[in-house]
Amino acid sequence: MKKETIEILVEGGKATGGPPLGPKIGPLGLNINEVVAAINEKTSGFAGMKIPVKVVVDPETKKYEIQVGTPPTSALIKKEIGLDTGTKDGSIVGNLSFDQLLKIANMKKPSLIANDLKGAVKEVIGTCKTLGVTIEGKSAKEMTKEINNGAYEERLT
């Protein structure tokens, strides 16, 4: 028998046995509370954000695997600095530290096009530019130039 995949969107750390999860898991004969607890454990770091989750179930063995996606880069940036929305008029609306930039790049790296941390950081910087967020008080263009010139090499390898 082939595996069943259930795709849901849950708030980080706050999945429940109610809809949409319970009605999809129940018929497969799994312990709903166990699955919910596992999802909440895996998504707790994304509190306050909607996270895509896949539960891959083998109906014969009742074994399951939980795959957690990541929120959009813009949502991670906004959460990190407490923003509700990005810029509407091109103005600067917030600032990330380099440590915050690295944290977001590491969270998103598996789902980005980049081959390495430096590339992932540059992709996040691009999203910062769109949102109106500086990094260490510098524009996206300035920060990218510094990275290209080796300024943060020891932290990006």
What's the total count of β strands? Answer: 5
Q: What's the helix count?
A: 6
Overall morphology: elongated
> What is the string of helix and strand elements?
EHHEEHEHHEH
CATH class type of the largest domain: Mainly Alpha
Work out the count of structural domains. Answer: 2
Cross-sheet strand order for the largest sheet: 1-2-3
Helicity level = 25-40%
Under the CATH scheme, the architecture of the largest domain is: Orthogonal Bundle
CATH fold descriptor of the largest domain: Arc Repressor Mutant, subunit A
The end-to-end distance, rounded to whole angstroms, is: 44 Å
CATH superfamily membership of the largest domain, which one? Ribosomal protein L11/L12, C-terminal domain
Poorly predicted sequence stretches spanning 5 or more consecutive residues:
none
Largest sheet: 3 strands, antiparallel
Instruction: Tell me the strand percentage band.
Output: 15-25%
Roughly what is the average pLDDT, rounded to an integer? 91
